Amino acid sequence: EVTEREAVQSEALATLHRVFGYDAFRGEQEAVIEHVVSGGDAVVLMPTGGGKSLCYQIPALVRPGTGIVVSPLIALMQDQVDALRALGVRAGFVNSTQDFDERRTVEAEFLAGELDLLYLAPERLRLDATLDLLSRGKISVFAIDEAHCVAQWGHDFRPDYLTLSVLGQRWPDVPRIALTATATHATHQEITQRLGMPDARHFVASFDRPNIQYRIVPKADPKKQLLSFLRAEHEGDAGIVYCLSRKSVEATAEYLSKNGIEAVPYHAGLDAGTRAAHQSRFLREEGLVVCATIAFGMGIDKPDVRFVAHLDLPKSVEGYYQETGRAGRDGLASTAWMAYGLQDVVQQRKLINMGEGDEAFRRRASSHLDSMLALCETARCRRAQLLTYFGQEAPESCGNCDTCLTPPETWDGTVAAQKILSTVVRLDRERRQKFGAGQIIDILLGKRTAKVIQFDHDQLSVFGIGEELAEAEWRGVVRQLLAQGLIAVEGEYGTLVLTEESGSVLGRQREVLLRKETKPAAAPRARRSR
Ligand code: ADP
Ligand code: ZN
Q1: Relative to the CA of 55, which ligand 1 atom is closest?
Q2: Is the CB of 52 under 6 A from ligand 1?
Q3: What digits encode the pLDDT tens for the residues 47-104?
Q4: Which Enzyme Commission number(s) are listed (predicted)?
Q5: Torsion-angle region of residue 192: left (phi > 0), alpha (psi -120 to 50) or beta?
Q6: Ligand 1 close to Cβ of residue 17 (< 6 A)
Q7: Ligand 1 atom at minimum distance from 20 CA
Q8: 0.95 cut: is pTM over it?
Q9: DSSP-assigned letter for residue 16
Q10: Ligand 1 and 26: CB distance under 6 A
């Protein structure tokens, strides 16, 4: 006798073969699909390229009704729908790029039960008209793509996502699946909470990309460094070079072309025709390099990208991971190479300080930058650092990143770490107040700033015990402690707090090894108090 579970499994597998032409499920796909087809809610954390789409597309095909996919990537909807239609899946989308008639047609198809999948932009679900429409049709599953957009602490926050909890309230019997590639543990919790999915089962795939070699070099003459890297290791390979500005995208593409490496630019300032032409050349040709701003890459699925290079520092570890993750989807050896320098830090701090957004936004951007800097400065295995950042188990060393291959010079920072940690302890325990890195460093340096005087911090026994290091060096130490999880940043004020690991440093059970700050990696002098 066939159990219900076996029936679900075999129907899912049959759909995989028949519709998508694949032999087998990958990783967690089968478990996710079985759970959702059976009516359960799911939160799926899978890296980019991991195969999230099938996790909702197959339930939408197997269950009766239309699968509603909420996605913020309006620019990709047309492509996604075209790709599905080419496979014979009845798919449609509704977003702001359509005119009234197009929208009416899709809505009519939905109401007639003629759609397997309907893609919607999140802002549409704010409209009563959309909710009314949905309640007049039959829905098989709600898929909430890029679910980290609901996290206010995250780097992609979209207010429209906050309204999505309404789906669970209005359609309690329709399973929901939230998917994301970028979620730290905190973001993951926030997704569950804000989308109102307390009973969802969580599926967490490994974020490790063992075939990608991570390397971060001090920036001197970036274009030249890039050229010699490519000549030495990636002659004739397809790859992506990310730059921050359109100007440097253009300049880099031109420089590579002049030096015999075929490269084209891609950024939002180019007209749509040129962009589409460059993108399709990249997908079609074997050894083309695309120099691009981060506008390039979303939804690009080219398996044989052999390298991703960053000439400028990404704004966050999430961004870095996502961009480097476009390399080596075929599983073959690939390189994630980045040139990183002092100027990057100065520039990004400036951008944050001058940028729009309120104080909370600035603090968030700044803490994302700190995590990125920590990855750049770590003396630890880069892969271990990345995996820890995403809340995943990590090996001590991976053997396939620059720090594992050529261990950096380190110094014994145990005493420095103890000085910082004991200052945090004293502020927290004796004064019941928490402070950011700035105040703690001022105390260690024995600076009588207004804020130090105001809180009587010059009376603390730790006042002035850290004069052997300069302010910039202390900042480096703090960032590295953050990176190693020996201290943590809390709340919207960026206050420093102890972690479970801090005790072992204070109790001298463990040594703290810090990476020697090479010149380009040194922190900028942001403020001079006098
Ligand atoms: P994500 O949304 O997680 O970034 P996608 O769903 O776009 O990933 O899948 C990435 C690529 O992997 C796509 O080309 C997809 O067709 C392919 N893929 C996904 N699942 C399988 C599978 N089980 N077998 C073969 N290829 C798969
Ligand atoms: Zn490593």
Answers
A1: 6
A2: yes
A3: 777 789 999 999 999 999 999 999 988 878 888 999 999 999 999 999 888 899 999 9
A4: 5.6.2.4
A5: alpha
A6: no
A7: 16
A8: no
A9: I
A10: yes
